[in-house]
Structures are given as C-alpha cells and as structure tokens.
Design a protein that fits this description.
- The chain has 211 residues and is an alpha/beta fold.
- It has a single domain, classed as Vaccinia Virus protein VP39 (Rossmann fold, 3-Layer(aba) Sandwich).
- The protein is built from seven helices and nine strands; from the N terminus they run H-H-H-H-E-H-E-E-E-H-E-E-E-H-E-E.
- The strands form two sheets. The protein has a seven-stranded mixed sheet.
- A hairpin with an 8-residue loop joins strand 6 and strand 7.
- The longest helix has 14 residues.
- The chain binds S-adenosylmethionine.
C-alpha cells in the first residue's frame, strides 16, 4: 500500500540522531522479518508466540477498527495484526519504513493525527527508547490519538533504570509502565497486564481502556 499519511522529519527534535542511522545498528539484521520467525523467537523465549500475545491482548477488537503503531520499524508487529485479519493499519516511525498499511515518518511525540483518530494506538519496544524526560510527551500523544484502547509491550522495571544493550543500539530505559499513562490519565482502566521475563530483563504487556 502507498504512503498516504503526512508526516515530516522536520518535526523531529534532538536527541534523536542515533535513531536516524539506527539501521546501521543491525537490529533488522539481528531480528526476524517474518511473522513465523518472530513467533518462533517468542515461543522459545517466553513460551508463547507473538501472535498469541497479540490475540490475547487485542483479539477482541473489531478487525475493521483503525489501528496505529507508533515506532513500527520494519512493520513486523503490523504484519502480525494483518495476519490476524486487521485491515485498517497505520504506522509511524522516525525512519522511513516498508510495512503493510499506511506509514509515515513521524515522531511519536508530535503525531500528525487528529484526536481520537484511532480505535487502538499501540507501541512495542518503542517507549523504552525514549529518554524519561520525553516520556510524558510521548504518552500524551498516544492517549490523544486513541479513541478507546492503548496497548503497550515495553521494557519494565519497578524502579526506573537505564539499559546499555552492549552498544548494539541506543540506550533504553526501563520504567514501571503503564505508570506514566495512568498518571497522565488516572481514569484509564487497566484491562490486562502480563509480565514477560527474558534473560535478565522484563517486558510488560498492558492494555488500557479509556473511560
Ligand atoms: C525495537 S524497534 C520497534 C519494533 C516494532 N515495534 C516491532 O514490534 O516489531 C523501536 C522503533 O522505535 C522507533 N522510535 C524510537 N523513538 C521513536 C519516536 N520518538 N517516534 C517514533 N518512532 C520512534 C525506532 O526508529 C525503531 O524503529
């Protein structure tokens, strides 16, 4: 599908330089680019597939619902949704991407969409790359563009901490999410949560619903 959503690198603010040559960090080379590939990795590491996790968290959502992923990279997670039957998929990333659905280059902190434009807005492994100083802004935007559901799969820690990733990619921050989102909008309902432990770190998958 073609690129139909306006977005501009002109909106990107520092310190994001690392992401702009992120491809050279080798993430896409190190990670599978097929749904069956990522399913296998998840099965080995967590005991369930990425597809099963997705079904567990958003399987109840209408397949015609408009969905946005912020930080969609090569679109692997959007491909999982596509295979589950979702049809109205959008993605944004700081880098140009090639994914199923309509994609824009945009910064999650300044999303080029109207309030409530999406039934579901989600992130997967993206919030964790934002410096904690920017997390409020990113979460405010995620909440603003979602009409009802917000899903996250993010690096988690009870106490905010920094992760080095051995220089393979930019630093990451583990925060007790969805704490930021719930602080910004205390009326949000936490519908589901699942801690996923992998090596010495933990991801949290959480689903929030607007009142
Ligand atoms: C680990 S990858 C995410 C992979 C993808 N979500 C998936 O599940 O397959 C992190 C992505 O977040 C993007 N990213 C980082 N900060 C961002 C921001 N402020 N706005 C939009 N995208 C961002 C990076 O360019 C990168 O592609």
């Amino acid at each position: 599908m073609s690129v139909t959503v306006p977005g501009s690198l002109g909106k990107v603010r520092p310190p994001l330089e690392k992401w702009q040559d992120w491809r050279t960090c080798g993430w896409t080379e190190r990670n599978p680019d097929t749904v069956s590939g990522i399913d296998e990795v998840y099965k080995t590491q967590f005991g369930f597939t990425r597809t099963q996790l997705t079904e567990e968290f958003i399987g109840h959502i209408d397949r015609a619902a408009r969905v946005l992923e912020v930080g969609c990279a090569g679109g692997l997670q959007l491909k999982v949704l596509e295979q589950l039957g979702f049809t109205d998929l959008f993605g944004v990333d700081l880098r140009p991407t090639v994914v199923p659905g309509r994609v824009a280059v945009a910064d999650g902190r300044w999303l080029p969409f109207a309030d409530g434009a999406f039934e579901l807005a989600f992130t997967s492994g993206t919030m964790m790359h934002l410096h904690p100083a920017f997390r409020d802004r990113f979460c405010e935007e995620l909440l603003r563009v979602s009409r009802r559901w917000i899903w996250g799969v993010e690096l988690w820690a009870a106490v905010p901490s920094r992760w080095e990733w051995n220089g393979l990619m930019p630093n990451a921050w583990a925060l007790p999410e969805p704490g930021t989102l719930l602080r910004i909008n205390p009326a949000l309902r936490l519908r589901k949560e699942r801690k996923m432990c992998r090596y010495n770190f933990t991801y949290n998958s959480f689903l929030l619903e607007k009142p």
